[in-house]
Specification:
Elements: H1 19-30, H2 39-56, H3 62-65, H4 73-80, E1 94-98, H5 101-122, E2 125-133, E3 146-152, E4 157-161, H6 163-166, H7 170-177, E5 181-185, H8 188-199, E6 206-208, H9 209-216, H10 226-234
Parallel strand pairs: 1-4, 2-5, 5-6
Antiparallel strand pairs: 2-3, 3-4
InterPro entries: 3'-5'_exonuclease_dom, 3-5_Exonuclease_domain, RNaseH-like_sf, RNaseH_sf
Main location: nucleus
GO biological process, one term: nucleobase-containing compound metabolic process
Amino acid sequence: MEFKENNSFSLDWDDRFTEDVIRLMDAIEATPPPPPPSSSSKKRKSAVHHQDNLKTGRQLPHSILSPPRSFPSSFARCQSNTRLRYPPLRFGGHILYSFTEDEVENAAMELLKIVEIKKKEMGQVSLGFDIEWKPSFQKGILPGKAAVMQICCDSQYCYVMHIFHSGIPQSLQVLLEDSEIIKVGVAIDGDAVKVFSDYKVSVNALEDLSDLANQKFDSDCRHWSLAALTEEFICKEVSV
């Protein structure tokens, strides 16, 4: 088996890249830019700003003094009182990175063996599941295919597969379609739809962590993020 264990990759989209970079780009894409002001509003704002400066001197803009509405509530809490910040959550295990079709096939075969062992020990097996893809920042241009698939079987090993280059080989397809292997994640239904749309492979037996959290708190309306779940249940902070 040829695995590459690495914690930093190239930023070239056609080469290897980290989930952290893509998550940051997804966050940027999810925050819509403010509409450009008209020329008349620019003049009015300029005149008002000039008068205010004459009266009060320079002031920090409101956007710096308070976080925008698009920021999560946890960030607002940290801004108001830095003592409420939780310690960062760090992955202390090994990242097994696979790039070629053979490497991804071998990684999936190893995962299937681990799953069989865990089935004998625990009866039911759950895998952490997530995918990443290159977003599009231009109107009319669709986002790229699902590029990176991450599967974690425990706290010791995380398999990062660059399916953009390898595709989904047979063993990985067997793993994804197995209805007895539960795949767990946040907004995992959307990930499954993306995989099927891009590779025509079904991801079965899905469990959304957001739904489980709502069951615990007797709520059905909150859409939890992974960061919010981490803070709520284990008092840790997820950082990119």
